[in-house]
Amino acid sequence: MREFTTAISETYDEDESQSFLLDGEEYHYYRPSDGQVMMFLGSIGKHATIADSVTGLVDFFFGMFDESDQAKFSRRLLDRKDPFDHRVITEIVETMLEDWTGRPTKLSTESSLSPRSGGQKSTARTRKSTSSVSRSTAS
Description:
The chain is mainly alpha-helical.
């Protein structure tokens, strides 16, 4: 029978948390493990249903917090009058992933885009290739 063991890697340090403010309240979160990231990515893959994706997002988000913060988020999500919803969770998760990977997850609105020119182009347009085969239809 084959046997598998997990290699010793980074140890989880309960004291290594980061924090952010949400509506004036501070929340502390922990960097997810590779397994948590893998499960999240699997839940939002191309074969996932919308329900799988939402569940994966919420599970991943909650998994980065301790139980007291998870309880606060649960109360807020269940409060019909609280504007805290999946859009806020998505924004927080995207920001965290950008921080951890050092890569933006979407085009930043602050990125400088090349300005559109109203003037004439410096190079002339080229004609379409004449080597393409045209199809004729029989009458």
